[in-house]
From TrEMBL:
Gene Ontology molecular-function annotations: rRNA primary transcript binding
Record's protein name: Ribosome production factor 1
Lineage, opening ranks: Eukaryota, Sar, Alveolata, Perkinsozoa, Perkinsea
Pfam families linked to this entry: Brix
GO (cellular component) term, any one: preribosome, large subunit precursor
Positions of the Brix domain: 1-104
GO biological process terms, semicolon-separated: maturation of 5.8S rRNA; maturation of LSU-rRNA
């Protein structure tokens, strides 16, 4: 988008810090663990400046990719020493189904299947 700065780079070999927000239900915890497993084992010592955020809002999962930007300590105010800069890409996901066990399209048991008639209430969400 227009609000992303061109030329912002980071090392793609560094594992990103992973932020999962809004995955509070039992199904949300499972989806959050599956998303987290895409990025490998959790290591608390982040050498890179990459941040990957997955934000769940109204059963839509928004993906954003950021990098940390550290400002000069003499010229920056106390609260403005560190910021996030979006470096893209960005996309939105919606969970259609979640299957228990191994993948078997015809004989598999599903834990969750999205249907248009299941979203009658605007206050009840699956994730």
């Amino acid at each position: 988008g227009a609000d992303m700065k061109h030329g912002a780079t980071c090392n793609p070999d560094d594992r990103p810090e992973l932020l999962l927000n809004g995955f509070g239900t039992r199904l949300g915890h499972r989806v959050g663990r599956q998303i987290g497993s895409l990025f490998g084992a959790i290591q608390p010592d982040f050498r890179g400046r990459r941040v990957v955020a997955f934000h769940n809002q109204r059963d839509f999962v928004f993906f954003r990719h950021y990098r940390y930007v550290f400002r000069d300590l003499e010229n920056a105010e106390k609260d403005d020493r560190c910021a996030l800069q979006e470096i893209g890409p960005r996309f939105t996901l919606k969970l259609r189904s979640l299957q228990l066990g191994l993948f078997a399209k015809r004989t598999g048991e599903y834990e969750y299947v999205w249907r248009p008639d299941s979203q009658v209430s605007r206050k009840v969400f699956a994730l």
